[in-house]
Amino acid sequence: MLSAKATCNSHGQDSSYFLGWEEYEKNPYHPVNNPNGMIQMGLAENQLSFDLLESWLNNNPDSSGFTAQSVSSFKELALFQDYHGLPAFKNALADFMSEIRDNKVTFNPNNLVLTAGATSANETLMFCVADPGDAFLIPTPYYPGFDRDLKWRTGAEIVPIHCSSSNGFRITQSALEDAYQQAQKQNLKVKGVLVTNPSNPLGTSLSLHELELLVSFISSKKLHLISDEIYSGTVFSSPGFISIMEVLKNKDLLNTDVAKQVHIVYSLSKDLGLPGFRIGAIYSNDDVVVSAATKMSSFGLISSQTQYLLSQILSDKKFTKNYLTENRKRLKQRHDMLEKALHKTGISCLKGNAGLFSWVDMRCLLSSQTFEGEMELWKKIVYDVGLNISPGSSCHCSEPGWFRVCFANMSKETLVLAMQRLSSFVDSSVKKTNHNHWRRHVNKSSRKSKSLPKWVFSLSFATTRSGKNSDR
Ligand SMILES: Cc1ncc(COP(=O)(O)O)c(C=O)c1O
């Protein structure tokens, strides 16, 4: 009785990324009401600077457009709006996007299309540049929501650009070429490349070298490049953030056809921590894409009231300057706190400089270096330890043992508790595997390196052993 779309399984909801959220919902941690509940570390939400927004609202009580003082705005906002968006908001958003990029580039509000979050922006762009069956290349690991946003309703396909831990998951020329050829082997027409800069889940920003590589790749192969820059305001340490627009500008490409192939996705869900307001945007250098996306935006507009409120917040330059600086500072503190606690336990992370999460290397804790081993560990961490983290396989990582751990959606106290739980789990795992037979190896190895806790070696040996067993 239902359509193929409604009943097909390509939404991606059955990924462990979303399953972890479901498990969390059944038993959410609360410091008083449910102290043994599950701690949500699988949600890339930024709650660290909420107080700054709250205090702005307290100081600007008329900003909602709904108070007695602003009766005329209420009527204006409640009546019909076309899909072009409020000019005041588009101007303020374009300025804010420039401010995040240290005003090294400017954005023309006429090239902005407003959408209900980056989710809608990504899908709308896909509808504009790809037909069903066409493919986009995406570096792995990538945000699990892309399977839903880019493929589900559009019928487009994703082909992974396999990146590896050997070079910190950086994009290389050969990885791009391999993915392109892989798509051709599958008889897929490649329409473009999509990158997230800074990356979710890596928590790193793309280097100038990678960005230049991407520009020359899409230029030589005549492809689109979508740069999802939703985390651009979260870069908290060096190297800084380089927007794809900056690269186009510095290479004198802004008024060329190559610029028309480049589209930016943005949203206030991460930088301002407002995912519930559904404020997203497409910035395209191609007028035809802007026009088509504007018409499509009818299906996911931002409410006029939200646009009105945000136009006032973003026009307050003193506020935005302070917010961006303070938010970066708080993110860095939180990121450093998580990494320090993990290191103490013997777990390392990819060196990150951005985002709301760390990309954590738990290969030493795997019973076998396989995705089955990763799932086994993930289940233990979810059900026994009570932490919802996201396994690398849900982000299409090519190597088992990596996990995305979010740090900005909870209080400091909750993060401390989460790390205590993880540390006890690691200790007990070591006890279980620490047979006499292995202890000799452990002692020998730990004499070689004093900097890592003994369990790292102990578990590495156990892992090698069980890996061998499972090979047989
Ligand atoms: C890379 C990336 N793009 C898009 C989105 C969706 O964002 P929004 O809430 O603005 O739809 C997310 C959310 O986590 C994301 O990480």
UniProtKB/TrEMBL annotation:
Q: Which residues form the Aminotransferase class I/classII large domain?
A: 39-422
Molecular function terms in GO for this entry? 1-aminocyclopropane-1-carboxylate synthase activity; pyridoxal phosphate binding; transaminase activity
Q: Does the keyword Endoplasmic reticulum apply?
A: no
Q: Which cofactor does it need?
A: pyridoxal 5'-phosphate
Output the superkingdom of the source species.
Answer: Eukaryota
Q: Cross-referenced InterPro entries, in alphabetical order?
A: Aminotransferase_I/II_large (IPR004839), Ethylene_sulfur-biosynth (IPR050478), NHTrfase_class1_PyrdxlP-BS (IPR004838), PyrdxlP-dep_Trfase (IPR015424), PyrdxlP-dep_Trfase_major (IPR015421), PyrdxlP-dep_Trfase_small (IPR015422)
Q: Does the keyword Signal apply?
A: no
What does the record give as its pathway? Alkene biosynthesis; ethylene biosynthesis via S-adenosyl-L-methionine; ethylene from S-adenosyl-L-methionine: step 1/2
Q: Any idea which UniProt keywords this protein has? A: Ethylene biosynthesis, Fruit ripening, Lyase, Pyridoxal phosphate, S-adenosyl-L-methionine
Q: Which family does it belong to?
A: Belongs to the class-I pyridoxal-phosphate-dependent aminotransferase family.
User: What name goes with this protein?
Assistant: 1-aminocyclopropane-1-carboxylate synthase
Kindly list the organism's lineage. Eukaryota, Viridiplantae, Streptophyta, Embryophyta, Tracheophyta
